[in-house]
Write a structure and sequence with these properties.
The complex is a heterodimer. Chain A is of the alpha+beta class. Chain A has a domain of 86 residues: Roll (Thiol Ester Dehydrase, Chain A), CATH 3.10.129. By secondary structure, chain B is of the alpha+beta class. The mean pLDDT of chain B is 96. Classes of the chains: A alpha+beta, B alpha+beta.
């Protein structure tokens, strides 16, 4: 976590969406949708190939937020996100975010692969107890 | 095998029941081996596992889904993060079903509490339904 004149900044976290990582996440969640794990099926879909679970990147956003604000504040937080684009096989996902200067406790968060945003959203974190 | 949950079968207010699951230390260890964001002696459910709890309930309660659904939006409100090993129960309800620009949108609500009734987190997930 870092602090700037514009408020807290989330320490970026990364995860590579390897086939192994996607398979492990599929087993953890029970989400065995073939678009995530079956390259033959995934190639027939509008995605054109395997994509990672959106919530895999979302989990990383939650963890970056928790590191920035601590466990007490995260336990009263709301997070709204939109999944903008798929994370494809072997993409490196980076999550980051920062607190709005004019709205303490409101964080703009995102996940990206390279420069392409794959998730964006807003977290509302309660003030320090 | 049950009939698949096609778009036409959903209705606002429709309940799919609840799903019990205990995020124990073993599940945490497997999750943390992937994400590597928490200490091994983590005591409470990591925030990063919230969506996993909701997703497991959704997968379990709507097991017969058409392949190829896409998760479009997710909103979550946290009330408390329970200690690891706490049995949790997640309710799943359909909030809306909408055909828009020839795309099938279905929105669900999940509410997760301990089996003792203490609220933990709730959320909505919007899915682009495949069939």
């Amino acid at each position: 976590m870092t602090t700037s004149a514009t408020g807290l900044r989330l320490e970026p976290l990364t995860l590579t969406a390897t086939a192994e990582a996607i398979r492990i996440y599929a087993e953890l969640t029970g989400d065995l949708n073939p678009i995530h794990i079956d390259p033959v099926f995934a190639a027939t879909t509008s995605m054109g190939g395997i994509i990672a679970h959106g919530t895999m990147s979302l989990s990383l956003i939650w963890e970056a937020l928790a590191r920035a604000v601590g466990s007490r504040r995260i336990a009263a937080t709301t997070l709204d996100v939109r999944f903008l684009a798929p994370v494809r096989l072997d993409d490196v996902v980076t999550v980051e975010g920062s607190e709005r200067a004019d709205e303490p406790g409101v964080f703009d968060v995102l996940a990206r692969t390279g420069t392409a945003r794959v998730i964006e959203g807003i977290a509302r974190v309660p003030p320090e107890p | 095998m049950n009939a698949p949950w096609t778009f036409e079968r959903f209705a606002p207010g429709q309940s799919f029941g609840s799903w019990r699951w205990t995020p124990d230390r073993d599940a945490f260890a497997r999750w943390n081996a992937l994400f590597r964001t928490c200490p091994d002696d983590q005591q409470t459910l990591p925030a990063g596992m919230i969506s996993m709890v909701a997703l497991r309930a959704y997968m379990g309660l709507l097991a017969d889904r058409p392949p190829g659904n896409i998760h479009a939006q997710q909103a979550t409100r946290v009330h408390a993060l329970p200690p690891l090993g706490t049995p949790l129960e997640t309710e799943l309800v359909c909030l809306s079903r909408e055909l828009r620009n020839e795309r099938r949108w279905v929105r669900f609500e999940t509410r997760t509490a301990t089996t003792q009734g203490t609220p933990c987190f709730e959320g909505t997930m919007t899915m682009l339904w495949a069939a």
